[in-house]
Amino acid sequence: MAKNVAIVGATGAVGQEMIKVLEKRNFPVKNIKLLASKRSAGKDLLFKGEKVKVEELTTTSFKGVDIALFSAGGAVSKDFAKHVIDAGAVMIDNSSAFRLEEGVPLVVPEVNPEDVKWHKGIISNPNCSTIIMVVAINPIYKLSRIKRIVASTYQAVSGAGASAMQECIDQTRDFLNGKEIKPVNFAHQIAFNLIPHIDTFQENLYTREEMKMVWETRKIMHDDQIKVAATTVRVPVLRSHSESLMIETEKKLSLEQIKEAILKAPGVILEDEPQNKVYPMPFFRAGKDEVSVGRIRYDLSSETGIMLWVVGDQLLKGAALNAVQIAELL
Ligand code: 25A
Ligand code: L14
To answer: Are residues 254 and 302 in the same domain?
Structure first.
């Protein structure tokens, strides 16, 4: 049966992709409501070729709505969750607001689809780097439990939103023209630079983004023992996050077993022919649904370690696509 769908943050980097993913997958939409802040209210956006006016998000926006897709930041999600639930709608939330709360499923449809069943009105969409990682490692985990992961990420500027993406483009031009650079969205200049700092620093000297990969992986994979340590880095790439992973399995696995498992798994593809210069790259993953895995090789520093290079479009599988897949499960 067709559903009434609302998108909160419809004008943002993720919201725009949510509109496109609903269209592309032919999600049964009866009526679509596009919501954003007052700034964007009145603006026209297209859905299936028809103009839809962006409305200001208010407490009464969810009357008659069945599914509300949220991507307007944690504060907006916290303020409006009650109004979504009171209206009898289900909230699929892309922010970090409720991900670790008991009673809120944290779902990646390729990994733990069954968890949508126990929702009480809110389902959280995981952090983008975590989604991309678990889609890649889940087929390996099914061959042998993974004990330990060491991850380094290379995260695109669009992860910080549409204005951050524009800032990277503008800074690059300004730098080449010898103009002065004043950072707005990031702590430092991002053009021709790397910034090892995403989200806020914790007392343990890791950032929240790094800790999301620890906490959320355990919840999604239902494994409280899995050990994860991450370094998350912002890179001047417009779209798609990349990750270098070292995973240590319980049983010794062969590269052939791993490749075969990845080839058969949903949502993930193999691009691993080093001799032919075939490996995943973020520029070429942008706009694509699947997470791509390559550079698969034995870790030289441990008995059962495997090294992988993983790339996924974080606006799609890391956010909008995963959210719409959750809606499809519902
Ligand atoms: O969960 P977290 O950690 O708290 O963070 C989540 C945030 O990160 C992004 C996303 O930003 C989200 O806000 N994000 C989350 N997951 C992501 C992922 N996997 C991810 N990004 C990439 N990958 P975003 O930029 O994508 O989207 C922001 C949207 O939210 C709307 N919004 C903000 N506050 C709102 C609100 N809607 C309703 N009520 C509120 N109070 C926002 O709409 C946007 O759609 P908008 O109307 O505020 O802005 C649309 C246009 O306005 C410009 N603009 C933005 N800020 C300002 C501004 N103009 C002037 N002044 C400003 N301060 C923008 O350029 C835009 O064109
Ligand atoms: O927790 O690349 O979903 O800035 C998504 C965007 C975390 C940061 C989340 C990025 C955010 C991330």
So the answer is: yes
